[in-house]
Queue: 2 jobs
Job 1
Amino acid sequence: MANTILVRANADGETTVVQALIRHPMDSGFIKDKDGKLIPPHYIEVLEFAHNGTVVLTAFWGPAVSKDPFIKFSFKGGKKGDTLSISWVDNEGMKDSRTAAIM
Amino acid sequence: MTETASDNLADFLPRRRQMLAGTLAGSLAALFGAGPAQADDVVLADPKAYPTAAFAQKTEADALKAMFGRTATVSPKISLDAPDIAENGAVVPIAVKTDLPDVTAIAILALDNPFTISAAYRIPPGTAAAVSSRIKLAKTTTVLAVVEAGGQLYSASRSVKVTLGGCGG
């Protein structure tokens, strides 16, 4: 699968600000396709961020999170070059993960 | 990629046309400083942790009971930032932050959506009690930010008027 995760993490010495964008349809299950058939729900359920192997945020998402979801948060610590890992799994068992260096 | 995706990407990539046209992977690695995958450092999202029952609830009371096992009291220490009027219910930016100490979780509820809970975040120690994201609103609704702090549950609410619903139908 092409990489679905865009992430940018910037450390200012005290805190690290993380912004991430995931490419995912986040189908709600309430929208019909052009033939009038309901598109089944398809959405990310769990998204996890870890800094050097320690979880810094766990997101639980329902189908009401927007398509191609965006999230921004921050945590204490983190310095340039540290590893941030991002991983998600959706309701159909599809998943993706990547690591990025904090800038 | 759809229009929405491109618009979202624009936040990240001012030169998105050029970026998308170019070698995407290489450009992104350069932009975001992504190194090669280091399997040891990856903490994988655990689908078993997902609170399925809570996300299936259709009222505030049921949702909070399923997610947190208690009811929330209104707190002025929670800041819920959302537009007064959302022209497009499919993408409504919501930002929650709080000064409450010992925050362990933040949840976002849209009371008139088909399912009440939109998103919930587990906040470990060291992570700021502030999360921004974007949700879909089916129609004009009260949006509720719920914060679990020190074993108690607090909330703040705000009405968002939706001119074009985000759930289709």
Note: Chain A touches chain B through 58 residues (CB under 8 Å).
Job 2
Amino acid sequence: MTRVLVVGGGVAGLTAALAAREAGAEVAIVSRGPGASALVSGAVEVAPGGGPPVEAARALADRLPGHPYARLRDRLGELPGALSLLRRSLSPHLSEEGGRFVTPLGGVRPAALAQVSQAAGAIRAGERIAVAGFRHHPGLSASERIAERLAGEGIAASSVTLDWLDRVERLGWTIFELARLLDDPAEAARLGESIRRAKPQADRVLLPAFVGIERPEQSLKLVSEAAGVACGERLAGLPTLPGLRLRRAMDRALGAPELHPVAGEVVELRDGHARVDRESGEEELRFDVAVLASGKYVGGGIRCGRSFVEPLGGLPVHDGQGELNGRAPERLLADAPCGPCPAFEAGVRIDGSSRPLDATGAPVAWLRAAGAVLAGSDFAADGAGLGLAAFTGYLAGRSAAAGRG
Amino acid sequence: MLEKREILGWVTFGGRALVVHPLQVAFRGRPGVDRFRENFLPEGLVPTSAADRRLLRGASRCTSCHLCDAAGASPALPSLVPLVFARSSLDLVHARPALAALAARPEVLEEGERLCPSGVPLRLLADWLVDRLAKVDAAAGGGAP
């Protein structure tokens, strides 16, 4: 049985660990935290443009030849399997279907999956939408602008101002405090009643992504019942409550004993051997194949100081086009102050079996790489989102389980 | 060839560096750090050591995502530690209520650290800020810490 060590506890690491386990490997996963996976809007995007995920990913690969989808083009048919594994492992956190979702600023974005309470807010053909706002909260009062933008996209949208927060004595509640408030069924019903009082002329009311932390689908049901109209959530910006919900769902999935979760940080990684820094002290782990799912700048998989460094495998750092080693990060940022910047695409290159390439361009037999640590993907700009993390993690996990070489 | 003004400059500044400054150090009697404390501690400027700078590199990992705030409630919001108070000593006096609230609920920083996507050492930073605040208080009370 192949011993697989997964480095990183984000979506890429989770799917790699699950896929390796499913393929019969003995798995250990070392996680310092979820990295940028915790900064999500709540949707699992695959590629911009919408449509079936595989076709959308192919179109992105055609447009960006340096993108990981382009390097793994022959295996894009496995994308639905990766999404299915992610959805099953986080159940009941994610919806069964995707759709088009409203962003915090009134844009519309396609996604393959979404959190259940946000899937209820997906745009449906022929429906009228009312965007809910709260006049006494500085972060939740822009409903008119959101509705205007949606109307500009040809969606029948209006805004509705709710009095739910009027009785609150303190301004500036954090989104987490409001969500905690809505975990209380009585408070969820109060929010619903405030929607009923506002008499929205709509088939669906879009709320901010704040309807409860513990059981958002139940809280949303209570809100909808009291409101007398279907309700759903928009996608979230920072600070992101869906990020916190995803974190909790991932903690549950990563807590499975068959994954051998280890809380800590890998400080040294060599062929067959890893040194992990834990609160209780250092620990040595042995493995046959390791999966590098260590993220980019947030997760710490790529460091950007005087130069670009991949600290664990000592691998060369590239963007979608060429090598970045030895290039000054501040120079790259200065050269591209507004457009796409190579610094955001920094990462390691892989071959078609998810093996990272060393300085000579040869694949490293004992390593696989997945997620944001891959070169050519810009999480914020390319629209591949968590779908890319799930897909590359899935492939890396399966490849690792098959052994070295 | 050097011009007269350049020669005069070299003599003036070179003389200061090679003669005047060593004499000042020899006869002043007190190390520079003491004079720094005397002049700047009452304003909240505490000397920053190499160990402090290593710790602050941890604070600089903060991406302002505010996810750690899910662990607390105002005024005990963990994000205040790296975002506001670890950046300027002059803001330390304003940190007092938040630090006191966080000290009263140690589980908030512990949970905040667990939630942090980039691994900011919130507990170490908060302890460090309490220590710096104590130094500022001691200076304001008349004695060097």
Note: Chain B has a mean pLDDT of 84.
